[in-house]
What we know:
By secondary structure, the protein is an all-alpha fold. Helices cover 74% and strands 0% of the residues. The protein has helices spanning 2-10, 18-24, 30-51, 68-101, 108-122, 125-148, 162-198, 216-224, 226-240, 254-276, 280-311, 316-337, 346-377. Helix 3 packs antiparallel against helix 4 (68-101) and helix 5 packs antiparallel against helix 7 (162-198). The longest helix has 37 residues, at 162-198.
Amino acid sequence: MTKSRDKVSILNFQNSDLFSKWFFTQDISPQTIGLAVLIFNLVTNISLAFKYNVWETSSLSIGYRRDFASLAVDFIAEPLIIIGFLWIQRKANALIHDLKNSNKIKNFKISQDILTEGAKRFSSRNICIYSIILSILGMGGFVMSIELFPTQAYPAWHINIPAIFWFRNMIGLPFYFFLSTFLFDLIIIVSILNRLANGRSFIIEPFHNDKAGGLSSIGQFASNLGYILLIVGIFIFLFSLPLFTDYNPASKISNLAIGSSLMIFAYLLFSPFLFLFPLYSIHKAMEKYKQERLDETSKELNNLFQELRKIYSDDSDKVKLVLERINQLEDITEKIERFPVWPFNITNLRKFVGLASAPLITGILSWGLDLVFSLFRK
């Protein structure tokens, strides 16, 4: 009985922090937790803005209502970070169980050891320790950047009011933790998939109707990472929005323009990497599988060709049989050439591209409309 319980707990991909343990004992969705965070931010920040009279733009600050970077953090980044933190733990369990239940993993003893080790790494206290350290460093770095590089024109709504500034930083500290843990979890999942692929533990079905070698569940997991890019993209869009507004000409300073440009460049560079990161090792395994099948048919074709040269003038019936087999192998080779070599299909790709490009399209449209309106004002 104890052994059975141990096996279940070992294969449970769950972090060891108290919040994760509490969450997995409750029948609550990550979206509900995210909504609760959004409502909490809405109530507390608007209350503070009115209490300290920083709702509107003044000589001291930009005002909360027009501080798009703060709005992006409060109502987009923080709620979605905690959703992502809880989502990846559930998706890790769902992905592994789907692969096992659909018999997509072979070499059970080897793969079981890999999965067991991965689950232990998920629940390791080291992740909590590293995430706490990164959280403190992240918040400390933010506070130091405010002190060392003060905003030259119209600072954020909370900068000049210590009570709000420190309250927001203390409330924001857990979100540094959630983001760090999410990244650690993603790395662990990718390392598990890499080891399974390198150990040739995946069963590849080239004629599977999912058009992804029977491994589209991995492609679906990768496509869902597009939601992370959607969060980041919306944040960048709102952060850059003052560049395209007229209410605050002083905000159009070089620091904001440079910062926005660097973030957009990093976003474009990082987006394909995030999608391909969990898939690349499986792609190499699928590519190797395809090449091995091609080598097999090529070897047989070469042998048949050599045989054909020997019997061509002697035995017409045998020549006919050899030619028929050569034609069969050529047809087989054409089919092998069409084997999928990536564990995703067009549906997975469309979803990821749609999520990743949505903020860019919104930003381009916003910039275009501002440009049009500016031409009509002349």
